[in-house]
Write a structure and sequence with these properties.
eleven-stranded mixed sheet; globular; 333 residues
Length: 333
């Protein structure tokens, strides 16, 4: 892939990094839907055990959609998490809906992409994907992962190491339920809902998409397999997580056992190779290329479905336009 980052995208990145004042619109619209999760049993005992640990009791649930006049007409979609914790605010999932519109400003009937953000608290890359996808005529929904954004509370920074596994499990469930929440909304082509995740979001997306194959296309950016190896040996963001887990007493086999509970490659053989795409940086020091290749192998991806670029985990932003265009071509050819 070739870097084609322009001043246009740089301006968008700066804009999305600024504090955003909000102006609420009318009373929220309300919809009732239900979980459609329908995973097939897995012939591999370990995969089935992992799958069983991620499932929840299916139920009907309410989805609300609140129009916001500012910023940029973005809507806020809320629904209850299927996984309850001790934090009510965290358990109300939030989606920023960047509505696809025609030249007259009217909503389009169009496919959708569920965007899973990175680990940064500002969720800037996730917002950038969502914002740019809607400019391309695709409805984009950026989920706020547990303890991020609208779901963040005073409890969010407490016992972060101990919360890692429950947080990821809740995130996976929230992402799968988000598919059903998006499908019930007006103007969404409900049979054409795809998923995109970056870094932390890529790990979550690869697992959530492996549950029952509901997503039309799967786009995984800067993620990989063998989470223990990534955390134990990776640099930068991975090292920060390692230090936090070590300080909480998770070292050696204990660390390995902890991370195995949320290891993506226990399930990624369930992905559909023909509709799964992995984007990796050759010089990534956070999620090394060998770990990306492990994920690609576990998902049986053909070489043309594993796209590489000459960058590291952070400089890869210059390839954002190329990745964006590739996603658009697949989602709305």
């Amino acid at each position: 892939m070739r870097p084609v980052f322009s001043l246009h995208y740089a301006a968008i990145l700066v804009l999305l990094s600024l504090p955003q004042a909000e102006t609420r619109g009318a009373e929220p619209l309300r919809f009732v839907t239900k979980d459609t999760l329908a995973p097939q049993d897995d012939k591999l005992p370990d995969a089935q055990a992992c799958l069983d640990g991620l499932l929840w009791q299916l139920a009907p649930f309410e989805v609300t959609c609140e129009e916001r006049e500012r910023p940029r007409g973005r809507n806020l979609v809320r629904f209850p998490s299927p996984v309850a914790t001790d934090d009510e605010r965290n358990d109300l999932v939030a989606l920023d809906w960047y509505v696809a519109r025609d030249a007259a400003g009217e909503p389009l009937t169009a496919p959708a992409v569920l965007v899973i953000h990175e680990s940064g608290s500002d969720m800037t890359v996730g917002r950038m994907f969502a914002y740019c996808l809607h400019l391309k005529g695709i409805h984009a929904f950026m989920i706020h992962l547990p303890h991020y954004g609208e779901r963040r509370t005073k409890q969010s920074d407490r016992d972060r190491a101990a919360r890692l596994v429950p947080m990821v499990r809740q995130a996976v469930a929230d992402v799968r339920r988000a598919y059903d929440a998006i499908a019930v909304l007006p103007h969404v082509a409900s049979q054409r809902i795809s998923i995109q995740g970056t870094s932390l979001g890529g790990f979550v997306a690869s697992t959530a998409a492996s549950l029952d194959g509901c997503f039309n296309e799967v786009f995984i950016l800067l993620a990989g397999g063998d989470l223990h190896d990534v955390i134990a040996n990776g640099q930068k963001d991975s090292a920060k997580i390692r230090d936090r887990l070590n300080a909480a007493g998770y070292t050696g086999q204990g660390l390995k056992d902890l991370l195995w509970q949320i290891e993506p490659t226990r399930l990624t053989h369930r992905l559909v190779p023909a509709k799964t795409w992995l984007y990796s940086a050759k010089d990534d020091q956070v999620v090394p290329l060998k770990n990306a290749e492990l994920l690609a192998k576990s998902a049986s991806l053909d070489p043309e479905h594993h796209l590489l670029f000459a960058a590291n985990h952070y400089t890869g932003i210059i390839f954002f336009p190329a990745v964006l265009e590739h996603i658009v071509q697949r989602v709305d050819p």
